[in-house]
Structure formats: structure tokens, C-alpha cells
């Protein structure tokens, strides 16, 4: 019986920690996106573990070009793992006919990169710079 109580306490503690940590991450990421002018959903609609390749492949070379336009750089994070959080953008200044999303890449819990994009094949991806939306 004590074994089950201990397991239950561990599970509840873990869930509370995950929910609390997730809330802090969402707040930090929302502030990061707001610093570029974006208003987003309060909670991530998706998250995924990622690894920044070392060396960059062609995809990450191009993606880092997008980061450089926003004053960011993924080069120091080559070979590191992190999490990509995705939020719904609420203030995209132009109607594009589909949902616009903001991605934030966090390494060690800190936002280090991101982009604004749509998911359709005819969609787009650009830097976090608000001016690129026009």
C-alpha cells in the first residue's frame, strides 16, 4: 500500500512540475515573441524535441539565414538539443487565408531562435521581424 502511495505522490508531483514549468515556458516565449511585435496564443499548440545539427545541413543553413535577419544566430547551439514550441499568431497584419504560427526554439529553457510561418504547401516562413509580414 505504501508503494502505491509513493508512486501516486511521484506521479502527482511530476504532473504539477510539468504543468508549472510549461506555464513558465509559455510566459517566457510569449514575452520573447512580443519583443518582436507578435501576439500569440497563451499556450503552445505543439511542442517537439529537436537537435540542431553540427555541422548545419542545407535546411539549417537556410534557417539560420532567417535567424540572422532577426538578430539571432543558431551557430553557438550546433549539436545541442532543445524544444520547438509552436503558438498561434493573433495579430498577423495581413489576411493570408490560413492560420499563422510562431515557432520558438528553446535551448536549456531559453528562447534562442524562431520563425513565423503557415503550414500549407503554398505557405511561407519568415523571420520574427514584424516588418517581414508586409
Structural description of this entry:
The protein has 134 residues and is an alpha+beta fold. It has two helices and five strands, in the order H-E-H-E-E-E-E. It has helices at 2-34, 58-69, and strands spanning 46-51, 81-88, 101-107, 110-117, 125-126. Strands 1-2-3-4-5 form a five-stranded antiparallel beta sheet, with helices on one face. A hairpin with a 2-residue loop joins strand 3 (101-107) and strand 4 (110-117). The longest helix is centred in the N-terminal third of the chain and has 33 residues, at 2-34.
Low-confidence stretches: 12-21
For the record, give the distance between the C-alpha atoms at the N and C termini, rounded to a whole number.
Answer: 63 Å
Q: What is the number of strand segments?
A: 5
Radius of gyration: 17 Å
Global structural class: alpha+beta
Q: Would you list the SSEs in sequence order as H and E?
A: HEHEEEE
Report the mean per-residue pLDDT as an integer.
89
Strand fraction equals 15-25%
Give the neighbour order of strands across the main sheet: 1-2-3-4-5
Please report the number of helical segments.
Answer: 2
Percentage of helical residues?
A: 25-40%
